[in-house]
Amino acid sequence: MLYQVIIVIHILLGVGIIGLVLMQQGKGADAGAAFGSGASGSVFGAQGAASFLSRTTAIFATLFFITSLGLATLSGYHGKKTDLMDQAPVENVKADDVPEAPMPEAPVIKEVEAPAAK
């Protein structure tokens, strides 16, 4: 049950990271805000939105890594460890049980004499 909950959280964090990265502006878009393009009247201020989005992305990424490690740890203990050497040997098969397949005929190889050296 815990494994499925962590997987759901992990997927939601991944989708959240994708959305936050797509919402962030590139470095070229900051030049317009520096010359007073009206971004200072926004909800977060001129630089507030960028720092808020980048901080939220960093938090989501940290939580994503934590859930990745948690899933890796839980999958290591998920189920019984098996070793090939501990498995029972395969029973011997008798020759009478195996259907006989027809043998293909071997190709005939003709010997060719090499030309004599002159």
Give a written overview of the molecule.
- The chain has 118 residues and is mostly helical.
- It has a domain at 1-25 and 47-78.
- It is 48% helix and 0% strand.
- The chain has 3 helices and no strands.
- It has helices at 2-23, 30-34, 48-77.
- Helix 1 (2-23) runs antiparallel to helix 3 (48-77).
- It starts with a helix and ends in a 41-residue tail after the last helix.
- The mean pLDDT is 77.
The biggest beta sheet is recorded as: none
Tally of helical segments: 3
The portion of residues assigned to helices is 40-55%
Q: Gyration radius, to the nearest Å? A: 34 Å
Structural class: mainly alpha
On the 0 to 100 scale, the average pLDDT is 77
- The CA-CA distance between the termini, in Å, is 87 Å
The count of DSSP E runs of length 2 or more, i.e. the number of strands, is 0
Please render the helix and strand layout as text.
Layout: H1 2-23, H2 30-34, H3 48-77
Which short descriptors sum up this protein?
118 residues; elongated; mainly alpha
Short description:
This protein has 118 residues and is mainly α.
